[in-house]
Design a protein that fits this description.
23% of the residues lie in helices and 27% in strands. It has 11 helices and 28 strands. α5 (183-194) crosses α6 (201-208) and α10 (371-386) packs parallel to α11 (418-426). The two termini are 25 Å apart. The protein binds alpha-L-arabinofuranose. Alpha-L-arabinofuranose is lined by residues 65, 109-111, 224-225, 348, 397-398, 403.
Length: 551
């Protein structure tokens, strides 16, 4: 692939892409070569001297709930399983997670968390109680008759979760039961996890469970969706619960505890306004580190694979709401928390489709994933990067076998989805300094399911800097048309560019156990002689440009 500098480019005719060609598919992207007379209609300016903030590695976090096939079959196969495992944890999952640096994992729910007693999940596994799973009465599971997914065998408890986190190098984030257990049980969980070796009866119990040293758990979610499955509280009632659980009395055991309040569903600004007002009135923000926002995107027909053009754009547009959700919630939080000490934590997000493509019927909310979902992941992660000053953590829902998963697994079969590849591409942003990007491109437009004219930006992305390495990630949402953009790096010279592109031959392609590599990225170096340069972003694609810079 080649690239041309701006001077060569201006006044040149665009003769087509010089990208790598794959059979049956157009250019997978690349610098645009030669010709005469047409300018790129899109521009991306990367302003390396305009920092936004450090991109918290925790923005690239995950979520594991005791729901359908997430824990049992997904993460936990058991020590005696024929599925290769590390102390009962699926080995293939651990190996696939390590390279993408999962900074944090939220567990055990979701709605399940407000029904869970952590004390059921400690002690010898063969003596742990079997309980009814929160999701056991879901109509899908009910229709399946007597399936294990309806009950909770407690084989995967606090120790197993902490071991999983250690294997993959992630911090644990525990979601606390506010709906059905008293604050005292939460405090005992904190003591069990964090009290120094041998210091208390609970620390001794922890040692008897195999872990003498404390787990040093920092992140604790005080309830989940407390406006709904987590208690159906009013904002004022929840604020009172938060105070009871979180203020003053929780010993820190030397850990910088970070509590996460149960925030709104999507755009519910009144939940935030009223909770924050109540907390501010009692000066009860102490230890509230994050405010959890949940946003799931969907398209009208709800199908993961059988989607048409409106459903393509409708889903991307639904995911794109994340931008306004962050800014509007942030503004309302600032009405009571003027210094913005509390940051946003988007601890559930993703594309949620109908359950028609799960790899096993017991995998409740299981679904397949295409390049459309990859674009949802990419544009959402770009949004988080652009708001690195506001969003401190985010957790895609859910890690495996549920909603927008990075992995699908059943028994000994395992695959990575297109969404996994986005996380791999974007790993370079973790811990880097987000810098401002100004993009302009002709918008894409479509007529939605209700015959309304709709529009979405034509290109979007984010950039971050780590020493001399600039990472620019860009999504082209156009279903059929590639987009040529003139890319200018302002404030630095470009010395080399490498491009990795995730696209699909057909947008409905997806990875299956039989064909696990149908959708995967391709990398190529780009011959760039100067900045600005022109780059062609293929239709329906996610691109990472690794730009080496000199000053
Ligand atoms: O992720 C599935 C469910 O969605 C979670 O349990 C709940 O918090 C949300 O409504």
């Amino acid at each position: 692939m080649t690239a041309i500098g701006r001077r060569e480019f201006v006044g040149a005719v665009l003769a087509g892409g010089a990208g790598v060609l794959t059979p049956g598919w157009g250019p997978v992207g690349g610098a645009v070569r030669g010709g005469r007379a047409r300018l790129a209609d899109s521009h991306i300016d990367v302003l390396v001297n305009e920092p936004i903030g450090t991109i918290a590695p925790e923005l690239y976090g995950h979520f594991v709930e005791h729901l359908g096939g997430v824990v049992y079959d997904g993460v936990w196969v058991g020590e005696r399983s024929r599925v290769p495992n590390i102390g009962g944890i699926r080995q293939a999952l651990v190996e696939a997670l390590r390279p993408i640096h999962p900074a944090v994992v939220r567990w055990p729910g979701g709605c399940f968390a407000d029904s869970y007693d952590w004390q059921d999940g400690i002690g010898p596994r063969d003596r742990r109680p079997h309980r009814t799973n929160f999701w056991g009465d879901d109509p899908h599971l009910r229709a399946l008759g007597d399936v294990p997914a309806k009950s909770e065998p407690n084989q995967f408890g606090t120790h197993e979760f902490i071991h999983f986190c250690r294997l993959i190098g992630a911090a644990p984030y525990l979601a606390v039961n506010v709906r059905t257990l008293p604050a005292r049980v939460f405090m005992a969980w904190v003591e069990y996890c964090n009290s120094p070796a041998g210091s208390t009866t609970l620390a001794q119990q922890r040692a008897a469970g195999g872990d003498r040293e404390p787990f040093a758990v920092r992140y604790w979610g005080i309830g989940n969706e407390s406006w709904g499955c987590g208690g159906n509280f009013t904002p004022e009632e929840y604020a009172a619960e938060y105070r009871r659980f979180a203020t003053w009395a929780v010993p820190a055991y030397g850990v910088d505890l970070a509590f996460i309040g149960s925030g709104p569903s999507g755009g519910d600004l009144e939940w935030t306004r009223r909770c924050f007002r109540e907390l501010a009135e009692r000066r009860s923000f102490d230890r509230m580190w994050g405010w959890a926002l949940h946003h799931y995107s969907s398209a009208p027909n709800g199908e993961a694979l059988a989607f048409d053009e409106p459903a393509w754009y409708d889903l991307l547009s639904s995911a794109n709401r994340m931008e306004s959700l962050i800014t509007s919630q942030w503004q309302v939080m600032g009405e009571s928390d003027r210094e913005h000490r509390v940051k946003l934590v988007v601890d559930e997000w993703g594309a949620w489709h109908k359950m028609t493509t799960n790899v096993d019927p017991t995998h409740l909310f299981g679904q397949q994933s295409t390049i459309r979902d990859a674009l949802v992941a990419a544009l959402t992660l770009d949004t988080f990067n652009r708001h690195a000053d506001k969003v401190a953590m985010a957790n895609i829902a859910q890690l495996i076998n549920c909603i927008q998963s990075l992995f699908l697994a059943h028994e000994d079969k395992f695959l990575v989805t297109p969404t996994y590849h986005v996380f791999a591409l974007y790993a370079a942003h973790q811990g880097a300094r987000a810098v401002r990007v100004v993009a302009s491109a002709p918008p894409v437009s479509w007529v939605d399911g209700q015959q309304r004219e709709r529009a979405l930006w034509g290109l979007n992305g984010s950039a971050s800097l780590q020493r001399d390495a600039l990472t620019l990630t860009v999504t082209n949402p156009h279903l059929t048309e590639p987009r040529d953009a003139e890319i200018a790096v302002r404030g630095a010279a470009v010395t080399a560019v490498r491009a990795t592109t995730l696209a699909a031959r057909d947008v409905h392609d997806h990875n299956t156990f039989e064909a696990p590599r149908s959708v995967e990225p391709a990398t190529a170096s780009v011959a760039v002689s100067a900045s600005p340069f022109v780059y062609r972003f293929p239709a329906a694609s996610v691109t990472k440009l690794e730009i080496a810079i000199g000053r």
